[in-house]
Amino acid sequence: MVAAQALVGQVSAVVADSSGNVYFSAENCVFKIDSTGEMTRIAGNGRIGYSGDGDSTLNGQLSFPGGLALDADGNLYIADSGNEVIRQVTPDSVITTIPGSSVPPGLGFLSPISSVAVAASGDILISNRYSNAVWKVSPLGAISRFAGNGEGGYSGDGGPAMIANVGAPLGVAVDASGNVFIVQSTLVRKVSTAGVITTVAGTGISGESGDGGPATQARLSNVVAIAVDSSGALYIAEFAHIRKVSSDGIITTIAGGPLVGDPGDGGPATDAVLIGVTGVSVTPSGDLYIAVSTRVRHVSSSGMIETIEGNGVSYTGDGGPATSAQLNAPSGITLDPGGNLYVADNGSRIREVSPAGVIATIAGGQSFGYSGDGGPATDARMQVYPLTGMAIDLPGNLFVIEQLNSCVRKISAQGAVSTLALLTLPFYPAFPNGLAINGNGDLFVADTKNRLVRRVDSAGNISTFANSNFNFHDRSPYAIAVDGANNVYVSYSDADGLTEYAPNGDSTELAPAVFATTPMTVDDAGNIYAFSNDGLVKIAPDGATTAIGSGGYSFPVDGASALTGAFIVPSAIAVDSIGNVFIADSVFNAVFKLHPLPAPVSTPPNTFPSKNVERRPLPLMRPLDW
Question: pTM for the full model?
Answer without folding.
Answer: 0.68
